[in-house]
Automatic annotation (TrEMBL), chain A:
GO terms for cellular component: ESCRT II complex. InterPro entries: ESCRT-II_cplx_Vps25-sub (IPR008570), ESCRT-II_cplx_Vps25-sub_N (IPR014041), WH-like_DNA-bd_sf (IPR036388), WH_DNA-bd_sf (IPR036390). GO terms for biological process: macroautophagy; protein transport to vacuole involved in ubiquitin-dependent protein catabolic process via the multivesicular body sorting pathway. Signal peptide: none annotated. It holds the Pfam family ESCRT-II. GO terms for molecular function: protein homodimerization activity; structural molecule activity. It comes from Arabidopsis lyrata subsp. lyrata (Lyre-leaved rock-cress). This is ESCRT-II complex subunit VPS25. Belongs to the VPS25 family. Keywords: Protein transport, Transport. PANTHER family: VACUOLAR PROTEIN SORTING-ASSOCIATED PROTEIN VPS25, VACUOLAR PROTEIN-SORTING-ASSOCIATED PROTEIN 25.
Automatic annotation (TrEMBL), chain B:
InterPro entries: GLUE_dom (IPR021648), PH-like_dom_sf (IPR011993), Snf8/Vps36 (IPR040608), Vps36 (IPR037855), WH-like_DNA-bd_sf (IPR036388), WH_DNA-bd_sf (IPR036390). One of its GO terms (molecular function) is ubiquitin binding. Residues 17-149 form the GLUE N-terminal domain. It comes from Arabidopsis lyrata subsp. lyrata (Lyre-leaved rock-cress). It comes from the Eukaryota. This is Vacuolar protein-sorting-associated protein 36. GO terms for biological process: embryo development ending in seed dormancy; protein transport to vacuole involved in ubiquitin-dependent protein catabolic process via the multivesicular body sorting pathway; seedling development; vacuole organization. It is found in: Cytoplasm; Endosome.
Length: 179, 436
């Protein structure tokens, strides 16, 4: 059984046809499902938020069987994840893909829980602190992708749970919670 | 829905006509097809009617019979009337009134001097049909058979006579002289027969059966006696021996469906005839034969009235509309083949399945050449079968710099909601064992 870092790979990762985009519709749908699950599982375990389609994402090739996914295959599988709302293309050329192994709504809920757990109901924090401050060490929020964090915060702002404001320096935004 | 025995008349007027699985009539010995029309009804003129009317069928005129085949399965049975039973054909007068009605022919037939009306509701050359009907009825082809049958029985029944002259006064064929004389007489009559035939192409068609059996005899003679004295007469008639051998065609279809005799239904009838013909070459080729091979076989058997490749292809495409046991199949590569509907893909699929579930092939898959070797078929056919198996979900593909390979399709066995689970049963487990 293969491992990538500390992630246990499923057996079918060594099945050569897994790396060829299948032409037959039913077979292809099954293949897409398996790739979706694998990519989301892996990204969640390794806290990967971004996949560059032309980069060496470890899942895209298996040197043990000397196979790797074609560009078309990569785009097909990532687009399928986008289609389910678990990812987003960041550019029109479909070169960079933001992976939402938690949906934005899920992240918003995690932030609210974080606020409650740490008694921050009426506090002010910087955005950066949310992702790298002491309170967030060891939590899901540690190291969260900035883009995703901003989206979740904006969602909460629309619900009136917090207010975003610009900070002293150019790119230092702050949050006032009113949970 | 008509009742089951609708076309056996009240007093058993019609005879049952045998048809092939494709709906073509089975012709008797020496019987030649002459004309075909569609949308024909046959009614009884008498009151009360002497038989149940036959509605909407194809009417086929042969040298011996009128055959009616229902065009839809409405419970009617293919029926025929022997021309020998026809006692009188009423003359057909054209009138102003007749221009607005469907043309009809009335004739009288035995048993019982029944008056029968044939109504032609379809398009078709009615006048030509009528002419041919008179020709065939007057031709009395059935009587020649009876004559030759009774002749052979007569010559066999006399007592053995001694000497040159037989009991009935004819010169008996005895000894070597007799044999030579018999041969001489046969060749002279053959000679005359050939001359008559070649002068009139219409007559040639009606002598088709005779010609074909003559051709076969002559071919055998040529092959066995390269420089026989009897050969010289024929050489003068037909040129060199080689030409004549080429002219000797395989014995095949006696009454080829032609554009003339079937008119607008040409492609339909050709289609049915082709379906009948195709059976034997198909069996010999193992259930699948390419369209080009079939073109060769079919035209070779027809001899004259060759069909074009386009006609052949059209005839095959019409099979979808009829209930025939063969089909035209186009592979993705463009190759077109004719195959039996029953030639099961199942059979080939099960052999492929056995091949890909072996331990070694589970591990490394199969190429088209591997499959060709194991299944004992041509590599091109093997590839088509593998692609078909892929379409059916039995196999999936692996494309790499090493080429295209096919593996047993494990995807259906893997649960996406639980990607680490391997079920106890199933080939997925076998594959894991094979690759560990």
């Amino acid at each position: 059984m293969q491992k990538l870092a500390n992630f246990k790979l499923p057996q079918f990762f060594s099945y050569p046809p897994y790396f060829t985009l299948q032409p037959v519709r039913d077979t292809r749908e099954k293949q897409i499902q398996l790739w979706k699950e694998l990519i989301l599982d892996y990204c969640k375990s390794q806290k990967i938020f971004l996949i560059g389609i032309e980069e060496d994402f470890p899942l895209f090739s298996n040197s043990a069987i000397d196979r790797s996914l074609s560009h078309e295959a990569r785009e097909t599988f990532l687009s399928a994840i986008v289609g389910e709302g678990r990812a987003e293309w960041l550019d029109k050329g479909h070169r960079k893909c933001l992976i939402l192994w938690h949906r934005i709504q899920d992240w918003a809920d995690i932030i609210l829980q974080f606020v409650r757990d740490n008694g921050l109901e009426d506090s002010v924090m910087t955005v950066e602190e949310i992702r790298s401050g002491t309170e967030s060490l060891g939590t899901e929020l540690e190291g969260i992708d900035r883009t995703i964090l901003m989206r979740a915060l904006k969602l909460l702002e629309n619900k009136g749970k917090l207010a975003l404001f610009k900070g002293t320096s150019a790119d230092d935004e702050g949050v006032k919670f009113s949970v | 829905m008509a009742s089951g025995s609708s076309s056996i008349g009240i007093d058993g007027f019609f005879e049952n006509a045998e048809v092939t699985t494709s709906g073509r009539p089975v012709l008797r010995r020496n019987e030649v097809e002459c004309f075909l029309l569609s949308s024909v009804d046959i009614d009884s003129e008498d009151d009360p009617p002497r038989f149940t009317a036959l509605r909407s069928g194809n009417l086929i005129l042969t040298t011996h019979r009128l055959i009616w085949i229902p065009s839809q399965s409405n419970g009617a049975v293919p029926s025929s009337v022997p021309l020998a039973a026809v006692t009188h054909i009423f003359s057909h007068k054209k009138s102003i009134k007749s221009m607005f009605h469907s043309p009809r022919i009335r004739f009288q037939a035995n048993p019982g001097s029944i008056v029968v009306t044939i109504v032609f509701r379809g398009k078709g050359d009615f006048d030509e049909f009528l002419t041919k009907l008179w020709e065939c009825w007057r031709g009395r082809a059935w009587e020649e058979e009876e004559k030759s049958e009774s002749e052979t029985s007569r010559s066999g029944s006399g007592t053995v006579a001694q000497g040159l002259y037989g009991n009935d006064g004819t010169v008996r064929m005895v000894g070597l002289a007799g044999i030579l004389r018999k041969e001489q007489e046969q060749w002279e009559s053959t000679d005359k027969s050939l001359q008559d035939a070649f002068q009139d192409l219409n007559a040639l068609m009606s002598k088709a059966k005779e010609m074909v059996s003559l051709a076969e005899k002559m071919r055998q003679k040529l092959l066995s006696a390269p420089s026989s004295q009897n050969g010289s007469t024929d050489d003068e008639e037909m040129g060199s021996k080689e030409e004549m051998q080429q002219w000797m065609l395989s014995v095949g279809i006696i009454s080829p469906v032609t554009k003339e005799s079937a008119g607008a239904l040409y492609h339909q009838e050709l289609s049915r005839q082709l379906a009948d013909f195709v059976r034997i070459p198909l069996e010999q080729a193992g259930g699948m034969i390419s369209l080009t091979d079939m073109y060769y076989h079919f035209n070779r058997a027809r001899g004259t009235e060759l069909i074009s490749p386009d006609d052949l292809w059209q005839a095959c495409t019409l099979w979808e509309k009829f209930d025939v046991p063969v089909m035209l199949r186009k592979f993705d590569s463009g190759v077109m083949v004719i195959q039996n509907k029953s030639h099961s893909d199942e059979e080939v699929m099960s052999r492929i399945k056995m091949l890909v579930t072996k331990t070694e092939t589970l591990r490394v898959g199969v190429t088209a050449s591997d499959a060709a070797l194991t299944l004992k078929i041509a590599p091109a056919m093997a590839k088509e079968h593998l692609l078909t198996a892929e379409t059916k979900g039995l196999l999936c593909r692996d494309m790499s710099p090493d080429g295209l390979r096919f593996y047993f399709n494990l995807f259906p066995e893997i649960d996406p909601t639980n990607i680490h689970i391997v079920k106890d049963f199933g080939t997925y487990g076998e594959w894991i064992k094979a690759t560990s």
